[in-house]
Amino acid sequence: MTVTTVGATTAPKPNSSLNQAKLYQLILFPFNNGATNVYFVLLMNYTMYHANGVLGLAVAFATSMVTITRAFDAFIDPVVGMLIDRTSTRFGKFRPFMVIGNLTMVVSALIMFFGTRAIPESMMWARYLAYTAIYVLFMVGYSIQTSCTRSGQTCLTNDPKQRPTFTLVNTVASLIGMGVTQVVAIVFGGIYGYGTEAFFNVLIPMCIILSAALTVLAVIGIAGKDRPEFYGLGNTESEGKMRLRDYLPILRDNKELQRLIIAASGTKFAFAVATNTAVGCLLYASMMGDYSQFFMPMYVMGYVFSAPFFIGGLMMSQKYGQKKTLVTFTLVALVCYVGVTGLLALWNPGNPAFGLSLFSTEGGFHLTLNAYTIAFILLYGVGYGAYYSTADMSIPMVADCSDYETYRTGSYVPGVIGTLFSFADKLVSSLSTTVVGAAVAIVGLKTLPDSSTPYMDGMQVLTIILFCIIPMLAWVATLAAMKGYTLTGDRMKQIQAVNACRKDAIASGMSVDDAIATYHSVDQVPESYLDKR
């Protein structure tokens, strides 16, 4: 194949288009997401219990504070993304932000959950003011560290077969962060109650230690890749020149990013609503009558059903690309949740045959499974497994959008791409806590439901809407957005080949503009750059 160069004296040297990560790097770096998900569970599910139960702040304030500050956090993201793209230190672009973000959350958590208790009840106005200020600081730290997960993976690997592996490992890392936090919270929430000082005396130190340990692992994982030679096209012409006003053209012109934002942010909102602790209490305590019997087994069962989807999703993504897997699993979840909706509509508190029943301890332990429970386990388990396995799939897809931006414009701006995505994601998902809080108020509850909240009129419809209808609407939006998404597995192989050829051309003396003009389609690059696996 003849390769024509423009404005350069040397053609690029034939080379592999792949930047591959070592196994330990693929395993360790995703723990950055696990570290931040520790605090995500804390923020989304339990801070409002602390504000209301420990500090005596109004429920409306506690729930709306989560929404307002998370929305504020979304506006922090673009600034963080710009700083990441402009940063170049001996420790790389990403590691400094990972450490600074985590330390900020440690300090904020200590003040918010322990320091605010020192404010006397007679100065309630000061409690409101202090809680708001510290919560905002907490969200700044959260934004700083979370931004590194999406942006840092771009230098970790660009191998279309490794990026799906990142999804699987990232999910495991998230499970460790979220799962350990949730299990500890469930156990000690059942012992002390969610809105007590004793509960937070156990939960907060555990969260701090766990998140810090996972952050250290993530820093080790990315250390070998957080270097200039793994950044984009390897050029420095535009480094440090990105400004806030440059975000709009990227968001406007990168159509693939737009579609991914719609798909992922809607799903994130639905996930945050459906898995909210208050919604679980409505379903398993208020409707089904025994939170302790149902919540933990169903919670564990959901993860068990997720396992085959994680493994199958990895193989499918490696062969067909992440879009195919996302669409397929979303369809499975949608169909299953139609069935779950029907089962909850049939629920009848006066008829044991139409309610959940796992076991009984009267007269000794024995199973009491009925047909209703078996159907619920199967439909909910498969549906939850399918959609939970897609929850983090958008993260490596953001890296694809970043590589597409490099292909489209020549700019390596992973911080911008990642934080544009999280900007929209957080704005939408920030509504979840307010939606739950408002819904609870509609049925007449003055405090958030817990494991002992009795059933009230209207809870059945409310639970169906929060647990089923909202996720289903989000999945329909995901399917519509993905219909026009073009970054399939084959397309990404072509993009990586073109980017690698341009990178070598620039290293050989060609200008960025000339490299883009010369190599803008896969048929213009040497065959040795093509990934034929």
Automatic annotation (TrEMBL):
Pfam family of the protein (one): MFS_2
Record-given protein name: Sugar transporter
GO molecular function: symporter activity
Gene Ontology CC: plasma membrane
Record keywords, A-Z: Membrane, Sugar transport, Transmembrane, Transmembrane helix, Transport
Species of provenance: Bifidobacterium oedipodis
Transmembrane region(s): 23-42, 54-76, 97-119, 125-144, 165-192, 198-223, 269-288, 294-314, 326-347, 367-387, 427-448, 460-482
Species classification: Bacteria, Bacillati, Actinomycetota, Actinomycetes, Bifidobacteriales
GO biological process terms on file: carbohydrate transport
SUPFAM superfamilies on file: MFS general substrate transporter (SSF103473)
